[in-house]
Amino acid sequence: GQGVDEPLSATGFRQADAAGLFLSNVKFTHVFSSDLLRAKQTAAAILEKNRFCKDLEIKYDARLRERKYGVAEGRPLADLKAMAKDAGEQCPSFTPSGGETLDEVRERARDFFEFLCQLAAELEQKEQGKPDAPGRSSGTSGEQFVFPWTNHCSEAEPSSEGGRSSMVLDANILVVSHGAYMRNWIGYFVSDLNCTLPANLTKSQLSSVSPNTGVSHFVIKLGNLAKPEITCVCLNQDSHL
């Protein structure tokens, strides 16, 4: 939850370092993180290992915090499940006293995603407005956008010749958040924005919580800001673990 702002454990730091090595050849243009300590430390560890982005500013945003669990915060998962059972409900839809509903979490995710879309659109407008300037993405080396999970993904992944994913992007944004929050965000992508999913993705995989430092990759086209096109390349990728 939100109320117990603990640092990463020793295992957590090892996982964050592994994620950093996994993503070390990906050039990010922006990094956003939850303002909770464990997410801050994960984001910092990822950038520390990066070949291109060690000095990139991490922007912290409270909209990326984990779901608020009210009276269940700081307690074992078994306690939350017991509370849900006593209330005649199932986890994760159960909302403990003082906690956020799933709809409230999804609203936070929607608000943050719309902010990201607006940010990317404004970047493109600024570049187009410069006299005699090429587009933002035209001078970018595609090799810096090669993603390490290419060989683990399905046909949903956009790729270039030779099977290497080297897309030319206006923005390549790293977002570091939390399991329950991200599950709700992905649910918003699928149910509200008709996100295209990998053909081999099962319903149980779609509804599961990501492992710590699991990586999900989405390609978003903003031809229409009100209706972005979203493709899920991979979900909860954990080969680095």
Short description:
With 241 residues, the protein is α/β, with parallel strands linked by helices. The chain has helices spanning 10-22, 37-48, 77-86, 102-128, 179-193, 203-207; strands spanning 30-33, 58-60, 173-176, 215-221, 229-237. The longest helix has 27 residues, at 102-128.
Helix content: 25-40%
Strand arrangement in the largest pleated sheet: 2-1-3
The radius of gyration computed from the alpha-carbon positions, rounded to a whole number of angstroms, is: 19 Å
**Shape summary:** globular
How far the N terminus sits from the C terminus, by CA atoms, comes to: 24 Å
* CATH fold type of the domain at 13-67 and 101-124 and 169-237: Rossmann fold
CATH superfamily of the domain at 13-67 and 101-124 and 169-237: Phosphoglycerate mutase-like
Question: Mean pLDDT, rounded to whole units?
Answer: 87
The total beta strand count reads 5
Strand content: 5-15%
Counting copies of identical and different chains, the oligomeric state is: single chain
Low-confidence segments, given as residue ranges, are 133-143, 152-166
DSSP helical segment count: 6
Broad CATH class of the domain at 13-67 and 101-124 and 169-237:
Alpha Beta
CATH architecture level-2 label of the domain at 13-67 and 101-124 and 169-237: 3-Layer(aba) Sandwich
Order of helices and strands: HEHEHHEHHEE
| Major β-sheet profile | 3 strands, parallel
Structural class from helices and strands? alpha/beta
Protein name: TIGAR bisphosphatase
GO molecular function, one term: fructose-2,6-bisphosphate 2-phosphatase activity
Keywords: Hydrolase
Binding site for substrate: 38, 66-69
